[in-house]
Amino acid sequence: MKATVFPVVSCALVSLCLTSHATISTIGSPVVNPANGHTYYLLQPATWTESQAYAQTLGGNLVTINDAAENMWVYNTFPALTGIAQPSLWIGLNDAAVEGNWVWASGEPVTYTFWAPGEPNNTPNPYDPNGEDYATIRPPGYLPAGSWNDLGNPGGTMVDLGVVFGVVEVVPEPQTCVLLMMGVVSLLVFCRRKTV
To answer: pTM for this one?
Structure first.
């Protein structure tokens, strides 16, 4: 009996996981940012929480913006790939746990922000009466270009707030062989200095 329970439970869990993300998929091919070597994916419109959950299945999180250059790269790269004129882009910044305490979904420290004037404002709205806890890059045409706004979680396809697409960032794992070689080279340099 125990031998048959595990496969049945495993199949049910796999089915549940696949079903929960059935409405979300990537759009186009992944894009590599030449400045940092990270891989980025554009997701179909969905809520912030759905987009973040799907990002994790890809091995990443909604994008963490570390500086102005990365922000403008995301802003200049992804809106054109959506196929619509006024897309917003979900990024990984949120204050869902504690209002006003903005954190990245990746767990990285917040070292850069680019809020539009008057944002974040946590405006209650019909889509999310608790306010706005999730950051987006505003659509092209809004100034300053590439600035951020906070939205409620329903996001996705809210007609009056535009359509919101998730941008996923996958950071490559350090390659063990490369790190090992760097250690060996450092050791050889150190030993050579000791003998000279």
So the answer is: 0.76
